[in-house]
Write a structure and sequence with these properties.
alpha/beta; four-stranded parallel sheet; 8 helices; 9% strand
Length: 205
């Protein structure tokens, strides 16, 4: 499956009119796929240390777009001024600043990235837009109260063929802080990518 190299560009869709969204999608192509991978709780000093993330830098970095490396004078400006997880994720899925100031905010109040893609592309199948996360609050960032996107956040099981054994394993070994271990979230996400080829997925570890 072709993974669009400039995945972060898709976040700009939120500020576009519907006709601009269609134009953007035409540039992706009929076979284009975007996987937005985020790592929660990882400092940039650790992420850009190639001795720690050896596999990523050796096998995957060149296949995508990585921003923010201070050694290469790569700068990323964020709209999440409070520097907390949920406000940051809400900002990403909205495409601009949000009023959320803590990690206890509820579901999104306005149409999100995935919801806009779903509305514009009514012919897409259920798994073409997927939100898969170890932390249950990612679903609050990615969707409004009425959950219309395919999702599994926190300890939610995935009702798809081939995920039964993963559901059992995550249920048998829950982390003490709640949610789901990243290794199970990652396996769920990879199976969905390989078998369903979602057009857009946010895989949050």
């Amino acid at each position: 499956m072709k993974i669009l190299k400039y995945a972060l560009i898709l976040l700009l869709v939120l500020s576009c009119r519907d006709d601009q969204v269609s134009d953007f999608q035409s540039k992706i192509g009929s076979e284009g796929n975007v996987i937005l991978l985020t790592l929660d709780g990882v400092r940039y000093e650790e992420f850009f240390n190639k001795d720690i993330f050896r596999t990523f830098w050796a096998e995957h970095a060149e296949k995508g777009l990585v921003l923010g490396d201070p050694k290469k004078n790569s700068r990323v400006r964020i709209a999440n001024t409070v520097m907390l997880s949920l406000p940051g994720y809400k900002t990403m899925h909205k495409g601009g600043r949000v009023l959320c100031r803590t990690n206890k905010c509820g579901p999104a109040k306005v149409e999100t990235l995935g919801e806009k893609l779903q509305r514009v592309n009514k012919s897409w199948k259920n798994t073409d837009i997927a939100i898969i996360s170890s932390w249950h609050k990612i679903c609050d960032a990615a969707m409004r109260e009425k959950r219309t996107l395919f999702h599994s956040c926190g300890d939610m099981k995935i009702d798809l063929p081939g995920h039964f054994y993963l559901n059992e394993m995550q249920e048998a070994a829950p982390p003490i802080w709640g949610g789901r271990y990243d290794k199970y979230t990652f396996e769920h996400g990879m199976k969905i990518i390989e078998e369903h080829k979602p057009r857009f997925m946010h895989l949050s570890l």
